[in-house]
Structure prediction request, 171 residues.
Amino acid sequence: MAVVRRKDFRKANSYTGQKLKGSVDISYKIDGVRMLDRDGEQVTRNNKTPPGWDKASTQAAKDKLKKFKDCEVYVGDFIATNAPLSRHDPEEDIIDAEHVYPLDTTIGGHTHGFDSRLTIATITDPSEILINKYLAKALALGYEGLVLRTEDRWYRVKPYYTADVYVTGLF
Prediction:
């Protein structure tokens, strides 16, 4: 059975120096696990519930994901976040509401921005030089990079680019 990636969330494009016009929200990019609450199920972008989610996360974490629908779960770094979620027998209740970072979402017709803990600034017509200065600061603080949000797009800014790929063969 093929894994179906969900498409009901906002995806970020890679920033490659293109000129950005208008208001741009700049925030830190954290390397956690993207979780979605859709149709009563709490799943990843691959539309699967991680085996350790139910045990590893507190009720408060589950409730926060249920409220905001599209969140990044982050416990300090990717390995610390993904390890308990990948296990069938994780330590219980180690992912709390403070580890759930809401992303842009609409609740009751009102738009909520991304988690304020990640906010850096809102700038009009930022230059590539300025964006790179913010990137250097974010990296020095231990973040994965930046997220730039314009009116209609998200861009991820990282010092190197990665991709998720399917393994189609092995020899």
